[in-house]
């Protein structure tokens, strides 16, 4: 590797790096072993168009780190004992995410572990140089489902409204109902794929990158990053409007196939172009050329070895030991056996209950069933033979709730298909339980144009009725820790509301139905004093989506 006439220091240089490199390898193996399921989930989400840029994030983050090599090598940095504390907190996040069935907690726990290791190595002074490449890693982690769904439905409706405004600028008569654009001859549905998130997430990460390497004042960098949001919304709405104009003039094929995808690609490139124009304007204010305000100097390749530590801080050794213990802890948690209570399957749930007569429905879409991943479910429509009212019943039950396989709040998916939530909150049914206790549920009114539905839903977790989805996750964690049980279910009942003035009547219908079926659910949804039929290994199926 080195010439014979090189100095003794040069000959010993590989030995200088051996021990630190060994520690880095051990830390990497421990991190991957502990957070493997969370990392696999991230990569799986990168397959979707919204997060397809995720593959580039670690590479770009490494480049940003490499750019700071010269500055780092000139400083005499020392580690901080806060580093091991953050690593311990990251292991706590792993336990919480593993037992509460939330991938995102595990994924953010991984980033917290990286943060702790970084602080243990370079301390707070060094982190001031590292914070940009570190923060950039957050763009590779998908948003939690409830945030994504809420953002998606909001952007869907907003893009529909702005798109219709663009169509009307061309003098075309158009009617908007929810997310359906009615052009008279044709109807265009602004689907979830047209919500703009497939532009927003990549453009926000690109905007952050541009702001990070832009040589300007802090307010200019902030504007560059924040402006990626309105740029995306406006341009996506403009695309929807242009598609509407083209469909009105040339037919429905303008909204399908290659042309539709090509228009999307053009719009994204236009968003990038607008971002560059914005930076060009800032450069002009400073009387500089655009190329002069970007710090894109590529360090020499040989400086890569400066990224390898030449010494091992005691704080880093402690982090390594903590992570080693974390591997053993993770294996123990993932291999635990969960108790499965006895219960009657929903195939035995009565279809005739008092005045209510029901018909069973079946989910035939395999992709829906795969996403649902429930151990048992009930889909039925009930009709009251006395007054003709109708109620839809949906129950999803899970023997064991784990990552990617657990009940989720209908609040995230209620706005699908253009529906919007008009009202939402807790609602008390006085004396509704078989014991005479009050029953708290969630009540939502959703609307699509003039059509409304009234929705009641609640969670049943080891015999407890719960309305808050966050409290549900905490209960899953706590009961897994103390009872070795994680089974649970979601119960949802719905009815159509012909007119807003009939909401009171709809409440009466659903209240009566809930009071009727609640005693019947006791056989199908295990209580806290349930008997157990078996134990299953929690490792089985871990990480499935």
Domain tally = 3
Mean pLDDT: 82
As residue ranges, the low-confidence spans are: 1-12, 540-545
- Helix fraction by DSSP (H/I, runs of at least 4): 40-55%
Topology as a string of helices (H) and strands (E): HHHHHHEEEHHHHHEEEHEEHEEEEHEHE
Radius of gyration, CA atoms, in whole angstroms: 28 Å
Shape: flat
Structural class: alpha+beta
- Count of extended strands: 14
Biggest sheet layout: 9 strands, antiparallel
Strand content: 15-25%
Keywords:
545 residues; alpha+beta; 3 domains; nine-stranded antiparallel beta sheet; three-stranded antiparallel beta sheet; 17% strand; disordered N terminus
Chart the SSEs and their pairings.
Blueprint: H1 8-45, H2 56-67, H3 69-73, H4 82-100, H5 103-136, H6 145-169, E1 175-177, E2 180-182, E3 187-189, H7 197-213, H8 218-226, H9 228-250, H10 257-285, H11 314-334, E4 337-341, E5 352-353, E6 356-361, H12 366-372, E7 376-384, E8 390-398, H13 410-413, E9 420-429, E10 439-448, E11 451-461, E12 464-466, H14 469-482, E13 488-497, H15 503-521, E14 532-537
Antiparallel strand pairs: 1-2, 2-3, 4-14, 5-6, 6-7, 7-8, 8-13, 9-10, 10-11, 11-12, 11-13
Characterization of this structure:
By secondary structure, the chain is α+β, with helices and mostly antiparallel strands. It has 3 domains: 8-142 and 309-334, no CATH class; 146-293, no CATH class; 337-537, no CATH class. The chain has 15 helices and 14 strands. The strands form 3 sheets. Strands 5, 6, 7, 8, 9, 10, 11, 12 and 13 form a 9-stranded antiparallel beta sheet that branches. Helix 7 (197-213) packs antiparallel against helix 8. The protein is flat. The two termini are 48 Å apart. Residues 1-12 and 540-545 have low confidence and may be disordered.
């Amino acid at each position: 590797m080195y010439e014979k006439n090189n100095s003794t220091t040069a000959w010993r240089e590989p030995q200088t790096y051996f021990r630190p490199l060994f520690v880095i390898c051990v830390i990497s193996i421990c991190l991957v072993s502990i957070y493997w399921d969370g990392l696999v989930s991230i990569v799986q989400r990168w397959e979707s168009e919204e997060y397809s840029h995720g593959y580039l994030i670690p590479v770009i983050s490494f480049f940003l780190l490499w750019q700071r090599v010269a500055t780092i090598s000139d400083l005499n940095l020392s580690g901080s004992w806060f580093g091991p504390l953050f690593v311990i907190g990251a292991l706590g996040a792993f336990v919480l995410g593993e037992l509460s069935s939330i991938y995102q907690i595990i994924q953010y726990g991984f980033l917290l572990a990286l943060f702790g290791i970084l602080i243990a190595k370079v301390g707070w002074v060094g982190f001031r140089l590292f914070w940009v490449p570190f923060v950039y890693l957050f763009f590779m982690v998908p948003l939690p489902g409830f945030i994504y769904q809420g953002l998606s439905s909001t952007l869907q409706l907003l893009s529909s409204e702005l798109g219709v405004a663009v169509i009307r600028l061309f003098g075309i008569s158009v009617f908007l109902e929810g997310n359906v654009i009615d052009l008279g001859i044709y109807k265009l549905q602004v689907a979830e794929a047209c919500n703009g998130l497939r532009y927003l997430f990549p453009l926000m990460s690109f905007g952050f990158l541009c702001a990070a390497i832009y040589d300007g004042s802090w307010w200019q960098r902030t504007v560059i990053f924040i402006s990626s949001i309105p740029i995306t919304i406006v341009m996506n709405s403009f695309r929807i409007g242009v598609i509407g104009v083209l469909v009105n003039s040339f037919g429905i094929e303008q909204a399908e196939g290659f042309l539709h995808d090509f228009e999307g690609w053009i719009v994204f490139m236009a968003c990038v172009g607008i971002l560059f124009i914005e930076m060009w304007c800032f450069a002009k204010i400073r009387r500089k050329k655009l190329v002069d305000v970007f710090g894109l100097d590529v360090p020499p390749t040989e400086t890569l070895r400066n990224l390898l530590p030449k010494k091992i801080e005691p704080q880093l050794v402690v982090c390594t030991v903590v992570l080693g213990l974390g591997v053993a802890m993770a294996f123990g948690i993932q291999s635990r056996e969960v108790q499965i209570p006895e219960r009657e399957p929903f195939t035995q749930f009565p279809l005739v209950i008092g005045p209510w007569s029901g018909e069973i429905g079946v989910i035939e879409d395999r992709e829906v069933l795969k996403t649902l991943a429930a151990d048992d479910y009930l889909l039925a429509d009930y009709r009251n033979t006395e007054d003709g009212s109708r109620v839809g019943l949906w129950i999803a039950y899970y023997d064991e709730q784990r990552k990617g396989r657990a009940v989720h709040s209908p609040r995230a998916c209620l706005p699908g298909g253009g529906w919007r939530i008009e009202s939402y909150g807790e609602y008390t049914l006085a004396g509704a339980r078989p014991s005479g206790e009050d029953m708290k549920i969630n009540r939502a009114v959703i609307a699509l144009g003039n059509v409304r539905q009234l929705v009641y839903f609640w969670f049943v977790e080891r015999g407890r009725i719960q309305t808050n989805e966050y409290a549900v996750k905490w209960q899953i964690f706590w009961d897994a820790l103390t009872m070795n049980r994680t089974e649970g279910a979601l119960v949802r009942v719905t009815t159509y509301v012909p007119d807003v003035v009939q909401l009171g009547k709809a409440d009466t219908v659903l209240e009566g139905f809930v009071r009727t079926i609640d005693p019947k659910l006791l056989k199908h949804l295990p209580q806290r004093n349930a008997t157990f039929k078996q134990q299953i290994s929690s490792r089985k199926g871990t990480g499935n989506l």
